[in-house]
């Protein structure tokens, strides 16, 4: 006798119902849009009016746990812990022949969710073997009439923001003077130009981040030859803002380019980096003196981006707000992990978590918004016993609970940049199509989740 096997869609739906039931049981006393209602809305599937994708670069489970333990306590919960539906996804890249490369960089991982196609490390939204451009979710959203935005604490030309609005052979090709590894992508060879040039040429409605040094470079060929990329942006209709005051004062009506630092935006926290043999117990300094007071924080940038994207769509569609796609990146979780700087890393995770709170508060009032938070890859930091003597770098922190915590960095030789890891990472969501994050999925499945939510092709 043959046995009828359930389809994949039936299995996914059953899993989603089970998760919703668990969420309801977990929080019977939730507020007007608490975990119960969020889970029920997620199960409904359907179309999203808006999508907010939040990427904690390098934010694996260890990085989340470290920030939780230090800031809200071992039994506390961050904003990113409060999503009703949570799963995990795999993060591997591929070699040119399509075989797996088990540890990804940010370019290949970002290209995975941006295009639905895995690629080689270092490449931005192009195929692994033939080096051909692949349409991105931002490009599809634009074609579908959505407003679009990208916010980051890195340079706007860094890998994670780059995957949305550019296609280059190598992530190093950030400005017109940086094209050594991307000869075929240069305007002189008929290509689209550097990441900076492509980003403004794409007319993304909101671009907030660092990287002024890339946009100050001169365009070498084509229509805007001799101008800086910032001047090119102005020619294309962009308003340029450079600090918190000018960002707050901008009322919309044009695309906006926010350049808030020469390179990466300075971190919010600072402290002693990890050392061979460990450090004396330390508390983190939560006001980095190297960060100008005029620099907008990630939560404020996210709030402003949402306001501008809403205004853009209302103006574009005669008062009818069609919706938007926004990506927000907490970039320096990764960068401080590379530097074995636990305080910088925790501070950037906390700053990212406040941006998550902004997105969830917006979705509470606009339940037709899909909010997803995840990471591009795992990283090196590990919480280890106080009595452990790691072979690499370590630091002892004194948490807000008054307890000591030891964090270890041992994915590379001391003195070298610490490395990514190939682990799966968390993905959590609420809103239309959020059930798709349940279970263990592939990073490229996130592209499909967003595409299905926005109903773009």
User: Percent helix among the residues?
Assistant: 25-40%
Extended strand count: 16
Number of helices: 14
Cα end-to-end separation: 42 Å
Structural class: alpha/beta
Oligomer: single chain
CATH class category label: Alpha Beta
Question: Can you summarize this structure?
Answer:
The protein is of the alpha/beta class.
Characterization of the model:
This protein has a ten-stranded mixed β-sheet, with helices on both faces. A four-stranded antiparallel β-sheet has the order 9-13-14-12, with helices on one face. It has a two-stranded antiparallel ribbon with strand order 3-4. A hairpin with a 5-residue loop joins strand 3 (93-94) and strand 4. 32% of the residues lie in helices and 17% in strands. The protein is globular, with a radius of gyration of 22 Å. The protein is built from 14 helices and 16 strands. It is an alpha/beta fold and 457 residues long.
């Amino acid at each position: 006798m043959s046995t009828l096997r359930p389809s994949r869609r039936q299995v996914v739906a059953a899993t989603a119902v089970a998760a919703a039931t668990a969420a309801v049981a977990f929080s019977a006393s939730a507020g007007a849009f608490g975990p119960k209602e969020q889970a029920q809305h997620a199960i409904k599937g359907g179309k999203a009016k808006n999508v907010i994708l939040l990427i904690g670069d390098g934010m694996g489970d260890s990085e989340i746990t470290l920030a939780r333990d230090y800031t809200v306590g071992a039994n506390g919960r961050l904003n990113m812990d409060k999503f009703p539906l949570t799963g995990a996804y795999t993060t591997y890249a591929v070699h040119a022949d399509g075989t797996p490369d088990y540890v990804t960089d940010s370019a290949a991982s970002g290209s995975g969710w941006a295009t639905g196609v895995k690629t080689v490390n270092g490449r931005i939204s192009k195929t692994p073997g033939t080096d051909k451009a692949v349409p991105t979710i931002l490009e599809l959203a634009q074609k579908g009439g959505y407003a679009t935005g990208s916010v980051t604490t890195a340079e706007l030309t860094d890998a994670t923001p780059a995957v949305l609005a550019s296609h280059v052979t190598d992530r190093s090709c950030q400005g017109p003077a940086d094209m050594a590894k991307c000869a075929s992508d240069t305007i002189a060879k008929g290509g689209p130009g550097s990441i900076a040039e492509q980003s403004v040429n794409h007319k993304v409605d909101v671009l907030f981040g660092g990287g002024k040094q890339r946009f100050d470079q001169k365009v070498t060929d084509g229509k805007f030859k001799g101008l800086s990329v910032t001047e090119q942006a102005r020619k294309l209709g962009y308003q340029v803002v450079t600090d918190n005051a000018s960002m707050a004062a901008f009322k919309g009506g044009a695309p906006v380019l926010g350049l808030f630092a020469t390179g990466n935006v300075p971190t919010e926290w600072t402290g002693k980096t990890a050392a061979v043999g460990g450090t004396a117990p330390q508390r983190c300094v939560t006001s980095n003196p190297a960060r100008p007071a005029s620099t907008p924080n990630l939560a404020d940038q996210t709030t402003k981006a949402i306001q501008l994207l809403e205004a853009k769509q209302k103006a574009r569609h005669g008062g009818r707000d069609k919706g938007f796609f926004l990506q927000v990146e907490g970039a320096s979780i990764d960068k401080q992990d590379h530097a074995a700087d636990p305080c910088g890393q925790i501070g950037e995770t906390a700053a990212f978590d406040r941006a998550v709170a902004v997105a969830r508060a917006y979705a509470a009032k606009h339940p037709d918004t899909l909010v997803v938070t995840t990471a591009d890859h795992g990283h090196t930091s590990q919480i280890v016993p106080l009595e452990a003597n790691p072979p690499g770098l370590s630091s002892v922190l004194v948490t807000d609970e008054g307890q000591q915590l030891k964090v270890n960095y041992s994915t590379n030789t001391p003195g070298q940049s610490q490395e990514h890891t190939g682990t799966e990472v968390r993905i959590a969501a609420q809103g239309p199509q959020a059930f798709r994050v349940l279970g263990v999925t592939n990073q490229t499945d996130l592209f499909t989740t967003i595409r299905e939510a926005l109903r773009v092709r």
